[in-house]
Amino acid sequence: MATNHVFFEPPKSLLSILEEDKDLSVPALTKLGCTLGPQSRTVEVLEDLLRAGMTVARFDFSWGSMEYHQETLDNLRIAMRNTKRLCCTMLDTMGPEIIVLNRPEAPISLTAGQTLTLTCNKSVAASETVLPISYPSLAGTGLAPGSQVFVGQYLFTGSETSSVYLTVQEVKGDEAVCTCNNTCILEGLALTVHIAHMRNEAPILADSDMSAIRQWGAANKIDYVCLSFTRNAADIGVVRAVLDSCGLEQTRVMAKIENLEGLVHAGDIVEAADSVLLSRGNLGICLDAEKMFLAQKKLLRACNLAGKPVMVTRVVDTMTDAPRPTRAEATDVANLVLDGADGILLGSETFRGKYAVSTVKTVCAICKQAELCFDNQSYYRSLMEYFGCYTLHPNLGKREALASSAVRAAAKINAALIIVFTVTGQTARLVAKYKPACPILTVVTSAHEAKAHNNDRYSLSGSGVNLVAAGEGGEEASNPVKRRKVVCPDIKSDGLKWTLLGEVQARQCMLYRGVLPIMADPDFSLPGGAILDYAIAYAKQVGMVRSGDKVVVSQCPRTGYSDVMEEAGVVKLITVDDHVIPGSAMTFNHPLFVIGSMETLNKQND
Question: Where is the Pyruvate kinase C-terminal domain (predicted)?
Fold first, then answer.
């Protein structure tokens, strides 16, 4: 089986490079996350970030108090309502990260060639000659003469003069005598320490992480936990147990691969995690520079084959202090898209950067251009080849068959949109896995436990043909490490106002490439196909489709209110017409658009 896949389809003419974008309002399919901090936490800036293309908000608990992050999250919720745009929320843990302790108020100046001692003695004050670190002991870490150590400010860019590279000369107990390789001034909100080839035995969740998850995360029903310094699949099991213990069964886990141990166990980590973050900043310290691209391409490919969303960090560091990226950075962002990255996660650029909003606009614009050159059909064929679909013994499950059929059908008829019905979000993830060229409108439907109705399944009535009959066999994977409790979306009213329950599934879909989630209230008294009609009407209103466009619909019906899919799913082809649904004048009083009961919701919210 060939493995040297290249998913780049160059433009037909170099002159096309000079053409202006015809539709700047079309969002990028690639997702974009922002680390929120001092420069990106006011309502006004957050509104601008959402309009510019932010789909994931990262709250990094390596620094800052719960009160600080709560104020930022409250502002984000206001911004989402004001802009009517949805955003996924992510709690990033500190994990076994090593930091410098007992820092003086003034910056610490270091000179190239001088001696600097790292010590585990936490009672020592940090100075120009000694830095106390938070790690308990250097014994068994593998630290030895010649080891490379990096000390730099939190979310370092690599180009600033606030970081130092050290070479270990001697290890004496819990002290390491090092030589400074460059002149710098250590400053910033926090100073982190990264030791190349170190085996870090500290718990995967620090005490502060446990408190943050159980208090802040549980209170805010956070969508994802980003697990820093993930070393193996067992680490993911630890955080899942903590999430389950505090009522966060729905919260998903993003494994952050940022050291050699995580890279070695990448296969098991990808299988166990819900998504993956390639943290190039820290991993780049552990790897030789000439090996970094290999790690990046192999990891992205592994995530693509497994259908796990993968994001990448450290893309436009220059924009922390400059209004434009370098040519190399711009090319790097495009190559990440072509290599299969589902999303980009910005760090210092939005955390403390001077041009946070401009950075988001720039990265999204680059991603859009790269998507135009992404060879979707070659990518699709590479996955079919991986599953052995061109042999006598294919290994394609029912869920994969349905998802791949929807994407293949969309390519064949040049569809403008794929509509997916889902409860847990897994159907949307599988369709996104095949990276179609068109957006994926995901209708998050409810399988709430209520009284039985005569009509036990959603209908796909209307014009069109059934292309394939396949099944999900259950939206959740059978792997016990990945199995999660399913709590499905529902809408309830106490007689005074409507409350949306289960928004988390829709927000989690914001991590999937090309997916735009909306929520549907499955009012079974509606005529057959009404939810689909409303979804198409919504797509028309926001400019995703026009009359005459082709649309592919993918659905696996449920019998009763089971969270397990039936054996009969369908992929349907329809053509958008000029039909206007009565009462479909849509207003948005909630960032998560609700179809099916929108008139009632709008009246209640007026």
Answer: 400-560
**Bridge partners of 517?**
442
E strands, 229-270, in order: 252-257
Q: Say yes or no: 435 and 481 in one domain.
A: yes
Convert 334-371 to b/e letters by CB count within 10 Å (16 or more is b): bebbbbbbbbbbbbbbbbbbebbbbbbbbbbbbbbbbb
Question: Are 412 and 335 within one domain?
Answer: no
- Nearest alpha-carbon partner for 320 in 366, 354, 369, 271: 354
pLDDT confidence band for 558 (50 / 70 / 90): low
**What is the pLDDT of the chain when averaged over all its residues?**
83
Considering only 35-44, 199-208, 328-337, 532-541, which range has the smallest mean pLDDT?
532-541
What pLDDT is attached to residue 490? 46
> Is 80 exceeded by the pLDDT of residue 522?
no
Q: Please indicate, yes or no, if residue 2 is contained in any of the structural domains.
A: no
Over its C-alpha atoms, the chain yields an Rg (Å, rounded) of: 25
10 occurs within a structural domain: no
Read off the CATH number of the domain in which 456 is found. 3.40.1380.20
**Side chain identity at residue 467, one-letter code:** L
CA pseudo-torsion sign 447, 451, 452, 453 = negative
Domain count within the chain: 3
| Residue 190 shares a structural domain with residue 251 | no
**Exposed e or buried b per residue across 231-247, where buried means at least 16 C-beta atoms within 10 angstroms of its C-beta:** bbbebbeebbebbeeee
pLDDT band at 23; cut points 50, 70, 90: low
**What are the phi and psi torsion angles at 236 (to 5°)?**
-70, -40
Last residue of a domain, one of 144, 169, 195: 195
pLDDT band at 332 (very low <50, low <70, confident <90, very high): very high
Range of the domain at 212: 26-96+204-373
235 in the same domain as 365: yes
Q: Which residues pair with 440 in a beta bridge?
A: 418, 515
Residue 125, SS3? coil
- 506, 521 contact by CB (below 8 A): no
Q: pTM for this structure?
A: 0.86
Does 13 reside within a domain? Answer: no
Residue with tokens 């408190």: 211
Helices 43-52, 66-83: axis angle to 10 degrees equals 60
CATH code at position 71: 3.20.20.60
pLDDT, tens digit (0-9, with 9 covering 90-100), for 436-463:
999 999 988 755 433 333 333 333 333 3
Residues 165, 105, single domain; the answer is yes
Does 482 lie in the same domain as 568?
Answer: yes
